[in-house]
Amino acid sequence: MYLSCRTSGPALAASLVGVLVLTACEPAVEGSPQEVADAVAAALETGEFDAVPMVDGVPADAQARREEAYAALGEVPLDVQVLDVSDTEDVAEARLQLTWDLPGEGEDLAREVPVRMQVVEDEWAATWDPALVGVPDGRVFAVEETGQPRAEILDRDGEELATARPVWHVGIDKTRVEAQEVEESARRLAEAAGTDPEGYAASVAAAGPEAFVRLITYRQSDEEGERLVAATEEIPGAVALDATQVLGPTRTFAQPLLGTVGEVTAELVDSDPERYAIGDVVGLSGLQAAFDDQLRGEPGLVVSAVDPDTGEGSELLDREGVEPEPLQVTLDLDLQELAEDVLADVGPASALVALQPSTGDVLALANGPGSEGISTALAGQYPPGSTFKLASALALLRAGLTPESTVRCEPTLTVDGYEFTNVPGYPESALGDIPLVTAMANSCNTALIGERDRIPMEELARAARDLGVGAVWEMPVTAFSGSVPDEAGSQTEHAASLIGQGSVLASPAAMAVVAASVAEGGPVVPRVVAGQEVPEPEGSLSTEEAEGLRTMMRAVVTDGSASMLADNPGEPVLAKTGTAESGTQDPPQTHVWMVAVQGDLAVAIFVEEGEFGSTTVGPLMDAFLTEAAG
């Protein structure tokens, strides 16, 4: 106990006459109202009340009351500030403001509560009130999200592409099967689905006793899914839950581009806990991830103080959300379906890209089943082979040649010890001194390589850039616009670059851009989102250069390796075929290509392993253009 002693004036006078006056001493009060208010504020933030001086001691249920009231708020941070303190000699009151930093943008939840204090046994202490947690005694916070479902991705005409579609979630419900039968049921279900029985059985065994462990999800329109749903009726604990999921028109429809939607990953939550929470449904890849904020919107929040027994309560906060907005892309639903049908039976990785040269809009962006979900069309990096001869031919036009200028096509040509040949079966009638247009029509390698002194690497690279190769696209998803070095490491590499090999690389989308640039008469920048502003293209083509390239591409159809397109319906078809050797195998693997233009449509088709552009890709291009012409 601390003592405070005060000596009065009369005592001093009395001492002068020998009167002994005792000094007056009285006990001091420990702490202060401010200190107590600060302690209550800290306890409300942390849930630790033991250090708070309380009248009649800290109640045993103080922490429990806080936990119960805040359960619905989860891990939402709470900040408590002491607004002011007013006191008299032995009583005081403070105002506290409790503020919860709710997830997302917008108003946070704020509640003001009073703290009453008094002096008890020479110490300032707070009076416990269950309402100190921010809601009246007997009530708790309740949080409800409001908002609309995820917005759709639409095609160029407003047709639904990615939207909520009915599905079956097939799995084991452990509440519907005896514990000793769980693993056997899981194995039977996995076997019926054609997946790993032991792996799934282990996952089911490790889950909680009341868990539903999903094995696979099927569209309700899928025949294979219908068979599995029927099989669940014979397996204890197996169920098929009726649900919806954001999906494209088919399982493969532009899937790498559109992307997927699902529950947020732990990595995303860790990287941005303010934006994501466990259980959120978000875009995980492709455009769904790139435009997640737009498609997802921002849910509103309603926070109430409710009676947990009756559910009755009062609203404390109603925060409006941001409505989700659809995303319109440039794809044409019919052309995309056609492109996927054309590639449906192609075994190796493959791609088909169709552009509208006048706008740069990507009309179709398909990857064959051999790509196994990888974006071969946009992100693949392959030597483009003889389709790249369009850049070499442009460089020759700039060097003063015309389509009718004479070049020399030899059966073989050796450069720095390496022998280059033409494609097997090259026509003898197109050997010797021939016009450049004939060399392009029949894709003579040696004729282009023989003109290498006219085409320094920097001029080849410039010609490629003027056709859109290596340009900045600013795509919202991963894309490769191609690359052509300004210098070659050797004479052989220089020669190989002229026929689209060496260090030259391109994606199928990049080669579609080359064809589109020839059609448009200037470099085209592709876009996949309707109305998207694209970078201003670098470089240019003259009218004469564009017309010369179109003349040579038409000759490929009328007199050369793309003759299968000569009688296609609609406007005249321009084309260029290509093959490119790759790898160290003997014989080496051959990538096969074809690019084509018909009216305001430019198309590139690629197959990772095939015979020739004419034989492997030609029929695919023919089928696509024929159906597209309608």
TrEMBL record:
Residue ranges annotated for the Penicillin-binding protein transpeptidase domain, each copy included: 352-622
Reactions catalysed: a beta-lactam + H2O = a substituted beta-amino acid
Family: Belongs to the transpeptidase family.
Native species: Ornithinimicrobium kibberense
Keyword Signal: yes
Name the record gives this protein: Beta-lactamase
Gene3D superfamilies referenced in this protein's UniProt entry, alphabetically: DD-peptidase/beta-lactamase superfamily, Penicillin-binding protein 2a (Domain 2)
Origin superkingdom: Bacteria
